[in-house]
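Following the same procedure, sequence and fold were stored together, as reproduced here.

>
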Amino acid sequence: MNSLAGTKEAPRDLSRRSAESEWLDGADASPEELALVLRDLARFNGAMLGHWPVIDWLRRATKDAPKETALTLVDVGCGYGDLLRAIRRWARKRGLTIRLIGLDLSCETIRIAQTVTDDADEIDYCVMDVFDFAPPLP
């Protein structure tokens, strides 16, 4: 029972992906509010080790790849870019060459990610729908 409203919530169907828009996809958040929410999500991901499943997969996927082999990784819905920056740190420690690309539908989200990303991280951010993305040639 929801103690705030005094009504019982209908169960959610989690057997399939929701078609509802995410709150962050709405246009009603100010740029300042959006930046704070994205920063807080990045902090949460860091505190809850949210990047580690991807980095663990990368570790396994690249273990037999020659270090001189250039790889490309695309983060769809990159948000704040925190996952891409974590991957950059991980790759540098291992001497791996990875081109990192972050895609997001929101130009404001991309602007925020660019603002908090150091140029030395060499992350390409693009405002784009994943279905319009053409992978770069090696």
Observations:
- The first helix runs from residue 31 to 47.
- The first strand starts at residue 71 and ends at 76.
- The two ends are 55 Å apart (CA to CA).
- The chain has a mean pLDDT of 89.
